[in-house]
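Training component of the fellowship. As part of building independent skills, the fellow (R.M.) carried out the full modelling exercise for a liganded target. The chosen ligand was zinc ion. The inputs are recorded below so that the supervisory panel can assess the work.
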Amino acid sequence: MLLNVILGLVLAYLVSIISLKLKYITFDGAVTVFLLASVIFVFGELKWSVPILAFFVPSSILSKLKSEKSAELSNKFEKNSVRDSFQVLANGGIGGILVLLNYFSPDKIWYLVYLTFLGTVSADTWGTEIGTLTKRKTYNILTFRKCEQGISGGISTIGTVGAFLGGVVVVLFSSPWLNTYPAFLIFVLIILGFIGSFIDSILGGTIQAKYKCSKCGEISERNHHCGVPATLFSGFKWMNNDLVNFSSGIISSIFLVIILGIWN
Ligand SMILES: [Zn+2]
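Fellow's submitted model of the complex:
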């Protein structure tokens, strides 16, 4: 146990310091990553650590790639590619709670919810980053009208493929701990990550706050644009991108619980 604690803390320290050095996260984001990773690595060991790293590492690299390729697009997003602590908590906070629940009250369900949640946020990140890496035709998920690339609620073919792969990667890296489960469950986990990313796009296209710049008129997720405050154009002011990600992870987790309930 003592060795696990020391190894967990060392690994958590390494992940946060490397992410900070590579500018994947802000300083407060790095502190949050350290605390969260410590809990998951120490209490969850490899079984819980590998899947969250399979989400965190490629997602961070993809976000960084995009910001280097298109500074113009990132101007539309609420946040730039550097993750802050809110974003870390929205994507991984629930993982910290689940690993503790499983440690003190072991049940198979915690791990499956964990993978569903991670699959969803990973699918969403891959979809967004791959979908905006190059210039692509983008359509609104609800109206199927052409829309500007980089706007929440916009989907493209390449982004959809990216989202699918983002969900698969989490399941793939957790496969050593899933081999006692039937193939149907693996299929459900992959599909739920994929569906979760669509839920994310729907929420992003409807209730997420979007702002109109009072100077240039551009619609974006930023409440400041061209150096001046932008006015709310659609959605709710409090519904930001972090909350949309978190909600879609929760919704796909609820789907999982329902499916497991029907199946058993
Ligand atoms: Zn502007």
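The panel noted the following from the submitted structure. The mean pLDDT is 91. The beta strands are 138-140, 146-147, 154-155, 210-212, 219-220, 224-225, 228-229, 231-234.
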